Amino acid sequence: MSESAAPQNAVDPIKDLARTIYIALAGNTYAGAPTGGPDPKALAMLAFKLSDAFWQADREINAVAIAEAKSVATFTAADLDFGTGSQPKK
């Protein structure tokens, strides 16, 4: 019998974004620096804070955009006119 693959772990978008931010920060901070720099743990904490702030702002912006779209494109069943659809064209 074939063994089923183990279920993949769900990717946490905040962790994923924080990892990307950390790599960019560390690369910019430590590349070519003759001496040390900030503590790597401090950079990681900053990356997580930036990532979390990004996701919070994204949720707020998307909530506003969704609310605006719903207010503009309101549609109810009362807008439908089924009576003229079955009449033959003249």
Give a topology summary:
Layout lengths: L12 H18 L9 H33 L18
Detailed description of the structure:
The chain has 90 residues and is mainly alpha-helical. The chain has a domain at 13-73. The protein has 2 helices and no strands.
Shape: rod-shaped
Structural class: mainly alpha
Q: What radius of gyration results from the CA coordinates?
A: 26 Å
End-to-end CA span: 68 Å
Describe the biggest sheet? none
Low-confidence blocks of residues: none
Reading the helices and strands in chain order gives HH
Task: Give the tally of β-strands.
Answer: 0
Strand content: under 5%
* Helicity range: 55-70%
* H/I helix tally: 2
Mean residue pLDDT = 80
Q: What descriptive keywords fit this protein?
A:
rod-shaped; mainly alpha; 2 helices
Brief characterization of the structure:
The chain is mostly helical and 90 residues long. The chain is 57% helix and 0% strand.
